[in-house]
Amino acid sequence: KGFALPSTTEIAREAGCNQALVHYYFRTKEQLFIRIFEEKIKIFAGAFFSIDEKPGTFLEKLTRKIEAHFDIIAQNPKIPFLIINEITTNPQRIKALHKYPASIIRKVNEELEEAIAQGEVRPITVLDLILTVLSLNVLPQLLRPILEEVMPLPPEEVQKLIARRKEENVKLIINSL
Q1: CA-based torsion, 167, 148, 143, 73: positive or negative
Q2: In contact, 48 and 111? CB cutoff 8 Å
Q3: 48 burial class (0-12, 13-18, 19+ CB within 10 angstroms)?
Q4: Which segments in the chain show pLDDT lower than 50?
Q5: 126-80-24-100 Cα dihedral, nearest 10 degrees
Q6: Are 177 and 122 in contact (CB under 8 A)?
């Protein structure tokens, strides 16, 4: 529900405790929300930025990262809405992204630059690659309500479409490189 909608009373009720306990551990609703928001960011970005020690080429590793990221979003379809809403309504929330280690992004960049140097992929910046993956993987979840209500597609058809998007996204990204 984001930061604005739930009350600490509602949060305590959902957690199965009293409001005083929520305040004891987190002091304020803001501190509780920041903690939850940072966890959601970690879930959202973690799959793509995880260190992949399995053997393989850059493209094989990238394929695994794209698929893992897509799966995390499919399992947690409200996370993109939460992140976009909170960053839009409260730009200070962007600070939660700063906690994500720059060293992990540097690792992806190093792997990308090595693949470019070896001629495995065309020159592209790590930021362009990340934006491409994010936009392709997030959009099906953002459009899900439109697909279900406006199109209208039955839920099982939406699921099939989203499953196809995973394969299509990998193909699009790999072929673009």
Answers
A1: negative
A2: no
A3: buried
A4: none
A5: 0
A6: yes
